[in-house]
Amino acid sequence: MEKTLLSFGHGYSAQALAHRLVPQGWRIFGTTRKPERQAEIAAAGVEPVLWPGTDVEPLLKVASHLLISAGPGPDGDPVLNALREEIAAMAPDLRWAGYLSTTGVYGDHGGDWVDEDTPLAPSTRRGKARVEAEAAWRAIPGLPLHIFRLAGIYGPGRGPFSKVREGTARRIIKKGQVFSRIHVEDIAKALELSIAAPNPGAIYNLCDDDPAPPEDVIAHAAELLGRPVPPAIPFEQADMTPMARSFYAESKKVRNDRAKAELGWSPAYPDYRSGLAALRDREAE
After folding, report:
1. How far apart are CA 125 and CA 110, in angstroms?
2. Residue 121, in any domain of the structure
3. For residue 44, which of 70, 21, 67 has the smallest C-alpha distance?
């Protein structure tokens, strides 16, 4: 069946894509591990599927497109662990498959630029797991796979405003630290363009045009809300969880030229200033 998307791990980015596709007549099945999320998924016009727990092989057989947002776990990619043979069998019948990865696969580059041809050298456990998962998906013969390496995602409901309002936002300063980011709507637009013009084997970085130190983003968010800019805290003195600290283990600026050239994509929010301003205005409405 044409225009039928099976979305594994139907989360934040997949929902943004669904908002674009459903009005175009797409049928979308979105899997979730959490029963309490089914109503939320259904409200967006997506058919929720509790998985694991539901037999999804019939859905695989009718899907024309596949999106994988589910991240790898300690034992590897959860979708391939459960359904590798079934996906391999239906791979030639798929028009498009998308895997949402992360720019964490590049590792630390001391604030220098990376692109899709940069060798993969992740320094975190999460990044290494993503490299292995990418390779596992690429190993399926005949699968029309497209890999999207996402920078730090923000958007409605995900951003610095709530912490600024609560007074819990912190400007942690680590010399030379720089991150790339992407608004969730810009991810959805890139996926939509790729679906419209498949290029199996393609790998795209999705990020905005303005990598920036994290403390600058927090400061700007506070200014937009008319709140005091949180004080600076040296990285060495910051009380952080191991997960939060791991994000500071890598510093790089990510190029998005390939997505622009091959997909005809350009970010609607090319920097964090435009993205945060749009979020503030949306919240005000």
Report:
1. 19
2. yes
3. 21
CB 270 within 8 A of CB 148: no
Structure tokens of 194? 């790729």
pTM for the model stands at: 0.96
Residue 265's domain is classified under what CATH number? 3.40.50.720
CA distance 277 to 225: 10
Question: CA 211 to CA 193: how far, in whole Å?
Answer: 23
Vertex 157, ends 154 and 162: CA angle to 5°? 95
| Residue 102 backbone dihedrals phi, psi, to 5 degrees | -145, 150
- Residue 38 corresponds to which tokens in the numbers above? 């089914």
Per-residue pLDDT of the chain (285 residues; tens, 9 = 90+): 689 999 999 999 999 999 999 999 999 999 999 999 999 999 999 999 999 999 999 999 999 999 999 999 989 999 999 999 999 999 999 999 999 999 999 999 999 999 999 999 998 899 999 999 999 999 999 999 999 999 999 999 898 998 899 988 999 999 999 999 999 999 999 999 999 999 999 999 999 999 999 999 999 999 999 999 999 999 999 988 888 888 898 999 999 999 999 999 999 999 999 999 999 999 887
Using CA atoms, how far apart are residues 86 and 62, in angstroms rounded to an integer?
12
Domain count, the chain: 1
Q: Please give the residue range of the domain that contains residue 12.
A: 4-153+182-207+254-269
In whole angstroms, give the CA distance from residue 20 to residue 6. Answer: 15
